[in-house]
Amino acid sequence: MTAMLRGIRGATTVEADDAGEIRLRTQELVREMLSRNDVKADDLVSIIFTATEDLNAAFPATAARELGLDDVPLLGGREIAVPGALARCVRVLIHCYSERSRAEIRHVYLEGARVLRADLAE
After folding, report:
1. Which of 19, 34, 49, 91 suits 57 as a labelling partner, its CA being 20 to 30 A distant?
2. For position 60, which CATH number holds?
3. Is residue 122 in a domain?
4. Residue 54 gets which letter from DSSP?
5. 44-51 and 89-98 as β-strands: parallel, antiparallel, unpaired?
6. Tell me: the pLDDT tens digits for 54-98?
7. What is the pLDDT of residue 49?
8. How much is the pLDDT for 120?
9. Are 8 and 39 in contact (CB under 8 A)?
10. Is a pLDDT exceeding 90 seen at residue 119?
11. Do 18 and 46 contact (CB within 8 A), yes or no?
């Protein structure tokens, strides 16, 4: 199969608005998303990060840069503040080339974010 452009979704939560915890959980999430989908750095096109409004101690994209993704375009944004939405949540959308079909892509939901997509959480 020829490699196609794919999107991989993921999310995690942190216990507190702490730079170290945001870095740790974001790196854990990105590593798991790449690992579960056999994505290498050269396969990456771009990564979008969002964080809920209660997280401002660190940029999640900085955590990805620390993983060695210096040449991958990264973008951060604020998650829409919907009343009752999951708090202290970092969401990630990875764009990459993959030989996997959409059905074979493994999306990753960790920590408290498992409730967002219980059907996809492992």
Report:
1. 34
2. 3.30.1330.40
3. no
4. T
5. antiparallel
6. 999 999 999 999 999 999 999 999 999 999 999 999 999 999 999
7. 98
8. 65
9. yes
10. no
11. no
50: tokens are 């969002």
Nearest to 13 by CA among 86, 103, 99: 86
**Beta carbons within 8 Å of 114's beta carbon, 6+ residues apart:** 121
**Rounded alpha-carbon distances, angstroms, from residue 22 to 1, 15, 18, 54, 58:** 37, 9, 6, 12, 7
pTM listed for this prediction: 0.94
pLDDT of amino acid 122: 61
User: Is 82 among the domain residues?
Assistant: yes
Report yes or no on 38 lying in a domain: yes
Under 8 Å between Cβ of 90 and 12? yes
**Domain span including residue 74:** 4-117
The DSSP secondary-structure symbol of 103 reads G
* DSSP reduced 3-state for 107: coil
- How many other CB atoms are found less than 10 A from the CB of residue 111? 18
| pLDDT computed for residue 22 by the predictor | 98
Question: How many domains, the chain?
Answer: 1
Instruction: Enumerate the β-bridge partners of residue 97.
Output: 5
